[in-house]
Amino acid sequence: MVRTREQARAAREAKLDELHERLTGAVEQLVSGDDWRRALTFAAQFRARSFSNTLLIWAQHGAAYEAGRVSEPMPSYVAGYRQWQGLGRQVQKGQPGYMIFAPVTGRFASSNLTDAESWRRLGKGEKPRPGEVVRSKMIAVRPAYVWDSSQTSGDPIPEPPAPKLLEGEAPAGLWDGLSELVEERGFEVLRVPHEGMIQGANGMTDYTAKTVTVRQNMDPAAQVKTLAHELGHVLMHGPDQEDARQHRGIGEVEAESVALMIGAAHHMDTSGYTIPYVSTWAARVDGKEPVEIVKATGERVRKTASTILDQLDTAQVTDGTPPGLDREARQHDQPARTQVTHEQRTSARPAAGRVEPLPEPEPAALSPGLVRGL
Ligand SMILES: [Zn+2]
């Protein structure tokens, strides 16, 4: 059967619709604070991918487990069909992949980098004119597939490290690493003997005095968790937000969620993190639907936590990328930069048919027109 271009386009559109629907369904499952906590704990283990894609992988792996197609309730490493082949492993027959969003990029040329209007899209195979610079840019999303390691067979995969922490113990080097990041932002880290000195709180960020204060009369794990929470405030919030009352709830959720992801990435027990019911902080604001607010919040948190984790020199859980994927391939799993040079991306162009998971798109950031314009 020969499929026309229109049929292929329609099929892709239908899959994208299905994917958006599936994602909405997964977001709507996040009701209690505990649901949110579990979603972020999962996202911490697959943090190289967008928050939306982690939800999609979570939901589809869960369904595969329920159906008896995979043996473990949690995936370990996920990668594209060819990435697995590159690691000497083959996707087993009858194992459907997990559908996620992948970016569609276009090539753009310009002779005047300072003029945003000057970029013109290059046609297929079109060469830039002399003096023009070429950039690849994400213009839309398309469906792509990934498989968990348990759906593949072949060369063995090294076991992920699983260091255990004692109750109340802080991961080695985490306090110092987080303190450095707070100080890099021009804030001083202070420790006080008890909560009476900071209005009964575990920690406090003062944007005017430029201080982050943590009380010392808690176990080391609780202190480092509090510092991660305050670092979340330092990176994501500012003095203006302190007054914006309707955003205060979401600010606390963001800071606590960043701390949660940092903790989860260090094997810390995340059951003690306090997140209110999702409906209490993701209420409809400024015409934005709760589902959109949940997705945007999750992605903001994921980005902030990943940025922090990348800068720490601590032993962390894997980010879901199989060990041994070459650097080039790993980069494709990094969050999408909006613009990368064409040269960096040439090898990342997917071949027709099988689609590899390339840089993570953020569907929310795309206008529906662009997505539909595929
Ligand atoms: Zn706070």
UniProtKB/TrEMBL annotation:
Residue ranges of domain IrrE N-terminal-like in the record: 205-270
InterPro entries: ArdC_N (IPR013610), IrrE_HExxH (IPR010359)
Residue ranges constituting the N-terminal domain according to the UniProt record: 35-105
Region (Disordered): 314-374
Bias type Basic and acidic residues, positions: 325-346
This protein's name: Serine/arginine repetitive matrix protein 2
Annotated organism of origin: Brachybacterium sacelli
